[in-house]
TrEMBL record:
Residues 67-153 form the Methyltransferase domain. The keyword Methyltransferase does not apply. This is Methyltransferase domain-containing protein. The lineage of its organism: unclassified sequences, metagenomes, ecological metagenomes. Pfam families: Methyltransf_25. GO terms for molecular function: transferase activity. Signal peptide: none annotated. Keywords: Transferase. It comes from marine metagenome.
Amino acid sequence: MKPQIQFLQLLIITVLFVFNSTSLSYAKPRDKDRWNKKYDIEIYLFGEKPIPFLVDNIEILRKGKALDVAMGEGRNGVYLATQGYDVTGLDISEKGLEKAHALAAKHNVNIKTKVVDLENIELEANSYDLILCTYFMDRGLYEKFYAALKPGGMVLVETYNIDYLKYRMFNAKWALDTNELLDIFKGMRVLRYQDYDDAREAYSSIIAQKP
């Protein structure tokens, strides 16, 4: 690929992300068209590779049935499928999930997906070995994860924290407070936790296990 084309693609991704970064909670039905339009581009808006926190900790995660909440274009859920997980992905955007299936086909794995309104969804109790949710901020939804996990099941959550506002225009409503993930999942055993800040972006990540 020519350098000029690579630069143009990067520029498109940056502009789209910054323009829409005032809200990463995108589960309302009225947001469906907006996210479908965002994902309706040839390249993957957030890339095809999984987040490093997932890859770095894959060996400690419980194997089995995984739920990828706010799956988007599938970069994390597809990676889990390549590691042997039975993956179901939830998202408001049909276009995002179409691209997730295309990515899964590229890696010769299968995933299941469902278009849902995440702000009003009820999760089946004691059903999942792993629940993954990245860059979708909904405190009420996070609190539903505990009941949806099997005993011994795990959550992996990563999203922007309040320090991100130092670097980008961003709605503070969708940013975690200091140590907020630790408080939300305080009834679980914390296996990994990090606050990341590289003077360009800032986010918090947690892996916690249900007793």
